[in-house]
Amino acid sequence: MARALLSVSDKNGLVPFAQGLAELGYELVSTGGTLKVLAEAGLAPIAIDEVTGFPEMLDGRVKTLHPRVHGGLLARRDLPEHMAKLAEFDITPIDLVVVNLYPFKATIQKEGVSEAEAIENIDIGGPSMLRSAAKNFASVLAVTDPADYDIVLEKLRHDEIDGAFRKSLAAKVFRQTAAYDALIANYLTEETFPAQLTPTFELFEELRYGENPFQKAAAYKTALPELYSVLSANILHGKQLSYNNIRDADAALRIIAEFSEPTVVTVKHMNPAGIGQGPDIETAWDKAFAADPVSIFGGIVALNREVDLDTAMKLKAIFLEIIIAPSFTDEAYAALAKKKNLRLLTLPFTTDVPQSYELTSVFGGVVVQDRDLVNEELADFEVVTEVKPTQAQLETMVFAQKAVKHVKSNAIVVARHGQTLGVGAGQPNRIDSVTYAIKNAKKITDDLSDAVLASDAFFPFSDSVEYAAEHGIKAVVQPGGSIRDQESIDKANELGIAMVLSGNRHFRH
């Protein structure tokens, strides 16, 4: 008679599965709460302490850690010496293990959970049994996912359990136990950069393709999901998100989290095309759209206030991929949902984005850093020129600094009155970024005298300052830090420009 050992925290689907095993002639062995559930369902499971000869002890911490369990799991059926050893010690082989683990993840997500409670939800016996079974997958079926119960039964009934299926279940076990241990390690780790970095992610969904149609792709979310994430958003309408949609939407959420005032951000290829602020969300949209009405075609829009009907009708008039907002009025949703392929997403907006590591893959590894959550205020600025910036210019500098940190380096932003006018992104040299930003700003207005220019990093030469002045810019904010800072400061003094040093570089590659 075949033997199955069942010990699960998640009881969903347990009884029908156990009944199916019993009908196939399996002898059932079980523990604790699982034993009780099976007995109440009319089955006749054998208690684990009858197998081991020892009672469950230490408040359930020790019940399956015993040679009669692990010998029965690990013995190779193809080695006579293994089977002889089982016979010598009267150990019955175990052919199937059904185990899922203590809910450590759910426990640490509870508000106010104590470390002691978290530790008591670290499963030891479960992973041990699963790993023993999975190691011996040639002889033992290791079942850890309730979603697999039906297919396991079906294959058992039709004698279709082959080596490939056994191996696939074993692989799932090791993935799950690795992720489980990683979650525990991360919970307990206090070092900033430990010797082993153990992030773990869960499949969000397979994607149609990656950046290009010939690239396979999938999206994974963190094991402990972040609410302020495109992967946690409520997708109200529209087709599946693409790889590029997800990355662009993530960029939009990062940018708009900088602003508490009514703000709209438009994004294309992970760069802000336009950012607008106003007394209401419709005005903010008008300014964001006017900042670059060309680049937004086929782009992403994030709004940090509820979308009303008037704003929705303006959004509806152009081709967009995604609109993200805290909410939509019923009338706004009805209007926008008429566009079949437009994705409408909601999530709880916040300016308090939690700090966490950013991982970027490189050949052979990853590089890791904190997020750039530096929040610059007027008090942080150092005026270094003879001409002093006006209060309006200083306030625009704060706005522009929040924008420039999200533009691919080399990054330049020209802005005024809560609106970006021109963005220069990703150029190999800074003067080209300055040129592009001012060129784009000039499409909106010929008069840049009330605009400011923000740079994500220092000016290596004075040419950027000179070019800005030639085109009407009267105020510049940059981090400083170059050995040639004084050249730029002298040029600003020569040309009557106010220059402010922020002290913070904002490279974004």
> Taking strands numbered 1, 2, ... along the chain, how are they ordered across the largest sheet?
8-13-12-11-9-10
- The termini sit apart by 62 Å
State which percent range the strand residues make up. Answer: 15-25%
The rounded Rg comes to 30 Å
Mean pLDDT: 92
Major beta sheet summary = 6 strands, mixed
The proportion of residues forming helix, as a percent range, comes to 25-40%
Descriptive account of the structure:
- The protein is α/β, with parallel strands linked by helices and 509 residues long.
- Helix content is 36%, strand content 20%.
- It is built from 18 helices and 21 strands.
- It has helices at residues 14-23, 32-40, 48-52, 67-74, 80-88, 104-108, 115-120, 125-135, 149-157, 163-188, 243-256, 281-291, 309-316, 330-336, 391-404, 430-442, 463-470, 485-495, and strands at residues 3-8, 27-30, 46-47, 96-100, 141-143, 201-207, 217-222, 234-237, 263-268, 271-277, 299-303, 320-325, 343-346, 357-362, 365-370, 382-383, 412-416, 419-424, 452-455, 475-478, 498-501.
- The strands form five sheets. It has a six-stranded mixed sheet. A six-stranded mixed sheet has the order 16-21-20-19-17-18, sandwiched between helices.
- The longest helix is centred in the middle third of the chain and has 26 residues, at 163-188.
- The chain starts with a strand and ends in an 8-residue tail after the last strand.
